[in-house]
Prior knowledge:
Elements: E1 8-13, H1 17-27, E2 34-39, H2 47-51, H3 58-61, H4 63-71, E3 76-79, H5 90-96, E4 99-102, E5 108-109, E6 122-124, H6 125-133, H7 153-161, E7 165-169, H8 173-183, H9 186-189, H10 196-203, E8 209-213, H11 225-231, E9 237-241, H12 250-258, H13 260-274, E10 282-287, E11 290-297, E12 301-311, E13 317-327, E14 330-333, E15 337-338, E16 356-357, E17 360-363, E18 366-373, H14 376-379, H15 387-404, H16 416-423, H17 431-447, H18 458-465
Parallel strand pairs: 1-2, 1-4, 2-3, 4-18, 6-14, 7-8, 7-14, 8-10, 9-10
Antiparallel strand pairs: 5-15, 11-12, 12-13, 16-17, 17-18
The structure holds NADP nicotinamide-adenine-dinucleotide phosphate.
Amino acid sequence: MTVAETPYVIAIVGAGPSGIYAAEALIQQAEVPLEIVVIDRLPVPFGLVRYGVAPDHESIRSIRNTLERTLERPEVRFYGDVSIGSDLKIEELRDVVDAVIYAYGAGSDRRLGIEGEDLRGSIAAPEFVAWYCGHPDVHPDLEQPGGDGHLVATDIDELISTASQAVVVGVGNVALDVARVLIKSAPELIETDMPDDVLESHGHKGIREVHILGRRGPAYTSFTTKELRELGQLPDVDVVMAVDDLDLDESSRAVVARDKVAARNVAVMREWADRKPTGAGKRIYLHFWTRPTRILGSARVAAVQVERTAINTDGYVVGVGDTRDIPAQLVVRAVGYRGRPLAGVPYDESTGRVPHAEGRVIRDHSFAADEYVTGWIKRGPTGVIGTNKSDAVETVTSLLADIHDGAVVAHGRSGDLDRLLAERGISPLGMPAWHRIDAAEIELGRSRGRRRTTLAHRQELLAAAEDDHQPA
Length: 472
Ligand code: NAP
């Protein structure tokens, strides 16, 4: 079957790495004429590259430059500040384009399911990460208080300034990011692009001890070794762990024998266990075979009750009854992200994902002719940013095959989306607006003697996006 000469209009919902890699995969072929619109509810693109990668990981954050080049391509348009699901319903979007690729990530957190989880001072890592990265959801405009039960920047400021001990639950890369940011001093963070008020909060925080809890042994972490090593190189911080935790049982030895990353991680931790504390002012404790059973406190978290664990013969983590309390005024639950449902899009509650096969969305037990999915909302919150590239290629390969097979038809819809948005009085922010925001952040940073300062409030972003904006 030959493809149509009129362009196929493809909408991508989500301008994070997964959505932008999907746009990149689409433009890497010339056979099918395409118009690609990458839509985001936020005024700025880049998703987790801006709002998830830790601000002190500048080299990973610089992936933004590559993503930006894709959004600048003539076949691609970025439509920021357009919320699919509220500004436009999914059905309305599907009506005005030829195919949609969902790439809206996994914006929620997994729960521990233990008593005390909702005490003041117990927070989900995605919220803490969104705070230090300057996400507008956690930095509401001044006239618009949180109100919906979610934490806002002022709450986190108060929590970290009144805590001296913190517990981070989970042994993945997010736990490392959170522990590192919690323990670093404001002068160590000044080189980052954190918003001014976040940096200020780090200036008066009192955290001296961070306890990281792994419910299984050191062979079962999901750290990448580079990030793990970084923890042991922080100035004025001793990393402390029990030598006994490094006695590997049979199943741990089998993991280390087959998994190079696990072997390298265990080797790094062995070096730490052998080190004598230097008398540094701050400490990070790594506790393995330890799971939280209760978060204790009345008005506010005061301690975490933990229990020693083992893996039973069926491979499950079980408590072995030996409990103790770790004093802490802050608990950050870094036990993974979870996809949220988006009104009108199929969603599997048991996995927190959009059901699909090779990126083709399954709706009512069959493939929808025009719906595709990629990124965390497709495969779950796993992998590094680059993983989204191969994931997007799989989805786009399915979409292009369906175009060639005639399952996706070009309806000559160029301009239909713009007309609908105009009718609704919605003016998307494009790349010129992003460049104005970018320039304003760099200028604001310079005025503070910093490389850049993230604008965290939506109103600040919108003001900076305006044509006549003069950087402060
Ligand atoms: P993750 O890698 O899935 O780690 C989650 C951790 O939480 C695991 O250690 C898990 O232990 C633990 N956990 C889950 N449920 C638990 C419970 N009920 N009680 C105690 N512990 C529990 O998730 P993540 O750290 O949120 O990271 C998400 C993804 O982003 C990962 O692919 C990560 O590599 C990536 N990321 C990468 C970077 C980077 O490259 N620098 C930075 C940040 C994030 P079990 O293994 O026992 O389930």
